[in-house]
Design a protein that fits this description.
The protein is built from 5 helices and 15 strands. The protein is α+β, with helices and mostly antiparallel strands and about 280 residues long. The chain has 2 domains: about 110 residues, no CATH class; about 130 residues, Nucleoside Triphosphate Pyrophosphohydrolase (Alpha-Beta Complex).
């Protein structure tokens, strides 16, 4: 997860987005097919670029330069054969694959103009969309979210299970930032709404893009004023505080399943574990 805290290996290459330069770069392009579910074609557990991409299509999205070559995403209705989800790729490829999934899904979900409802078309090699009817521009949407690792005064970590999750799956509290709200205010509100906890301290840690859906996760740690938990019973089914020993035993026995290693949720949990 720490690779999100350093400069990206993906150069967004704004200078390539003019027609002549992008056509010249196409000859050396790496082109990945991406479907609406955020999967990419793969081979042997690695992304599989198209061997013969043909001519550049209007819908092809320039992701940028990665390892010295231009990378493009090609939206497709479906993929055949082996596929790979964004969370399953090698961390070294998270940057171009995350951009590919986020941009592909945005283009598929933004086909009409918000101003006049006319069909829009990709522009600047997929960096934005433009309405031929009224000239309005649309840019990729990102939904900011907060996620909080909550501890009590005994340094126990609060883990909760969402109602739709399997019985063993748990994570830390997260939610979308609402209109007119700061990230810190969203943390206090979400924690109070979902698990009935009041925070006395709150500290920002790091962020992570999460393209399914098109989110930017803002990670925090927070200290609860006491150890009381009152889950909402709707979104959150249950919650409990864990010592490091309790959590290790629960994971080993299979009673608890933690978030995947690609997630900021897992990063914040492991950060708490190693701090003890």
């Amino acid at each position: 997860m720490n690779h999100w805290s350093v400069p990206s290996g993906l150069d967004r290459a704004p200078g390539l987005r003019v027609a002549g330069d992008i056509d010249a770069s196409w000859r050396a392009a790496v082109v990945l097919e991406v479907d609406a579910q955020g999967n990419v074609a793969s081979l042997g557990g690695r992304p599989k670029p198209l061997e013969r991409a043909g001519d550049r299509r209007p819908e092809d999205i320039l992701l940028g330069l990665f390892d010295g070559r231009p990378w493009f995403a090609r939206p497709v209705a479906s993929l055949h054969g082996e596929t790979l989800g964004w969370r399953d790729v090698d961390p070294s490829e998270h940057h171009p694959l995350g951009a590919a999934v986020a941009l592909t899904r945005w283009h598929l979900q933004a086909p009409v103009c918000e101003r006049c409802a006319a069909p829009t078309v990709p522009d600047l090699a997929g960096a934005r969309r433009i309405c031929p009817a009224c000239g309005a521009l649309a840019f990729p949407r990102i939904d900011p979210c907060v996620i909080v690792a909550i501890t009590d005064h005994e340094d126990r970590l609060l883990l909760a299970r969402q109602s739709q999750w399997q019985a063993t799956r748990v994570s830390i509290v997260a939610g979308f930032i609402e209109a007119g709200e700061s990230a810190e205010q969203a943390c206090h509100r979400e924690v109070a709404e979902e698990v009935g906890v009041v925070l006395e301290t709150l500290e920002y840690v790091s962020s992570q893009p999460w393209p399914m859906p098109r989110s930017l996760m803002l990670g925090f740690t927070g200290r609860a004023v006491d150890s009381r938990i009152n889950v909402d019973g709707d979104e959150i089914a249950e919650g409990a505080y864990y010592t490091r020993g309790d959590l290790a035993a629960a994971v080993e026995s299979g009673a608890v399943t933690l978030p995947g290693r690609a997630s900021i949720a897992r990063h914040l949990i492991e950060r708490w574990i190693t701090a003890g």
